[in-house]
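Suppose a colleague, Dr. K., hands you the sequence of a protein chain of 365 amino acids and asks what its three-dimensional shape might be. Before reaching for any lab equipment, you can write down a predicted structure in token form. Begin with the sequence itself:
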Amino acid sequence: MNQPNWSMTAQQTEQQQNNNSLVQLNNLFELRKPEFATALKDIMTPDYFRRLVMTAMTSNPKLARCSQASIYESALTSAQLGLEPNTPLGEAYLIPYGNKCSFQIGRNGWIKLAYRTGLVKYVNALPVYEGEEFVWQPGNDPEVIHKPDVNIDAKAELITAYAWVVLNDGTRVYEVLRKRDWQKIRAATKGNGPGWKEYPERMICRSALKRLIRTRLPVNEFFVQQEPVPTVETKPEPVEIDESTGEILTPQAKFDAMLEAELVSQADDKGVRQDGAEQKTPARDDAESNIKLTAEQFWNELKALCEFWKQSFDKDQVKHLIKQQYGENVTLSKLNTNSRHEVLNTIERMFKENQLLMEEDNVSY
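The predicted structure, expressed as tokens, is then:
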């Protein structure tokens, strides 16, 4: 017998929410399995990749509390690049920032992408500390001479880092990050995280590798290109309204409703649907999203979005947006869960369009 919600402790409630999120995410991966199979090609199977993501979720409860949309986007990017997320291999990472999941390529992930071009014989990166001999000669015939000191003092100042690749024809290509370079990178990104605090030399070497590989090798073909924005004028799609509820039906909402109706219609006489779920009389909120969103949770989600994107969106702006989307007399308290999620999605799209700096995976580095 399930324990009633009112008798649960805060820790039990949080654990139950995490478990529900894991179940929903697992169902999402099953539903999107063909997309992951296309993205992964023959590098790994969709089931193996799904287990990697689910293991990452269970290992880090903060990830389980991220929005499913951000987890899905990050996981799909990792699949498209053929990199294993959150494993000891250090190829890629799914990192929670508030309620958003962010994708980052690790040091070994950049090295893997470099080798995958077929042009590279060897690739590496090293830090340089004060007191070590280091000569850098840029130009048409670049050269780096570095003699590491294996007995360097643990308190020696980190001066720079450099990365290099040896191409199949023997050509050497270097990338040197001067102190002002990596300090600028750290200041412009989430440089106060545990990685920069505990392992600055690794982060600097990773940045040098990233700049070298992303700008000197043809790895851009591994990244999914965004579809160009059409320049011709297009007419807005007609808005459909559910006559029974008065809700505006988005394409995703229509798809979900069609899928649910199909599963219910195919339920057998024992009340078991085609997806294996037991058909039951819907409760008051069952017709809405499985992820309930109260008004208080809405404002917490919005606060996390603003902190993540370093942008502001006050209550008056929310009221104005709701009136634009749902009518003059509609307020947040009158919106159902799906509509509240849609408002948050609209705000996030507005933040993205502002071209705010997201994270350290910036092409300019």
